[in-house]
Design brief:
elongated; 2 helices; single chain; mainly alpha
Length: 84
């Protein structure tokens, strides 16, 4: 399911808070503005890709497993079978 508001909020967070704050903090660490900007852009693209992959993995494997367990438990209850 695609949620436009969640996407807007996530992008606003990245653009308005995460990248500028991260750039400032890495500037304090590196001492070079361009190096800090490049590093933060790289890190944010990388982490966005990783977060997306995590969400896909979660929906595909974790939620499906949880839904299967709940369905299995519901069938057992409906058939009068004791819990595990």
């Amino acid at each position: 399911m695609f949620d436009k508001n969640a996407m807007k909020k996530a992008l606003a967070w990245r653009v308005c808070i995460a990248i500028p704050l991260g750039t400032f903090l890495t500037y304090l660490w590196f001492g070079h503005v361009m190096k800090s900007i490049e590093f933060m852009l790289f890190i944010n693209v990388l982490f966005t890709g990783l977060h997306y992959s995590y969400e896909i993995f979660w929906d595909k494997y974790i939620l499906r497993s949880s839904e299967n367990d709940q369905t299995h438990q519901a069938h057992k209850r409906a058939n009068g079978v004791e819990r595990d």
